[in-house]
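hey m, so remember when u said the tokens were messed up on ur end? i reran from scratch. heres the input so u can diff it against urs
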Amino acid sequence: MSGTILVTGGAGFIGSNFVLRERLEKKRIVNLDLLTYAGNLLNLHELNDDPDYIFVKGDIGDPSLVGKLLDDYQPEAVVNFAAESHVDRSIESPESFVQTNIVGTYKLLEETLGYFRRLPAGRAERFRFLHVSTDEVYGSLGPSDPAFTENTPYAPNSPYSASKAGSDHLVRAYHHTFGLPALITNCSNNYGPRQFPEKLIPLTLLNALEGRPLPVYGDGLNIRDWLYVEDHCRALSLVLEKGKPGQTYNIGGSCEKTNIEIVKTLCALLDEIAPQSPHVPHSSLITFVKDRPGHDRRYAVDCSRLERELGWRAKETFETGLGKTIRWYMENTQWVQSVKSGAYRNWIARQYGE
């Protein structure tokens, strides 16, 4: 796909990595982002002087703004990353998740459908709406259950996953009812550069570098499937290029690990990368904290459809991806300081009792 892509939520973690990748592929990017707590323009500072990167601060729930951007820039695709995405925050305050993930997606779909219907036949045939979602919509797995497939019934267990499930259903309905050429991807846990440090890996890393406790929920045996963010973004590009409208594609790393295994692996790698640290061995900082409500026990993603139909394979192992992640955070101290606002510190204190 050539031409212009309207990316929503492109200043966030996965969105910014996708924007950077697509600019390397010479796509013109219009990035619409409200810049809530996890949106950070430093994620895209390399593009500050790029004439083919246009940033617009705004909300996907603003129909007049979205309609104007579609009419002015005439994109060949809309890629929707815009979402509230942290489970713990959704438990504390569900309303913003409903507003952004459900109502916001609805309004974005409405404007996109109107734009799509005005396109000439050739451009309409090429147009795509890609909705980026999560494996959490499928609920939780038992120890011996098979991994989630695209046909797994939805069973969300948190306000976050319920709101994402609602948005997925809307996208699917706009394809089947109105003919919008929409695709959905459901990804496993991402990690990598530019991730806001409320999530397990960057929180653990930055706390370890400062000699602070490394909080692990419950017994630490909750299992997730881990996916390096650049592998995820390659998959999204393939889905845009070759995916079949109306189809859902699961994207996973085929890398199931317990939370305590993640933390211990990170500590061991950090010991090797920063042996001069006064906190070696960093695993001595591990602290178990009270489990969160409704904490799903296990996620695992079967991405064989993506591999079989589009030829995608993850390039990074967990160890190589984690090593790249650690080095990025250690080399980007300005970025780290930019996200450590008072609001962020208050949030960590509320969640982990610091």
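this time it looks ok to me. The chain has 13 helices and twelve strands. if urs says something different then somethings off w ur setup not the seq
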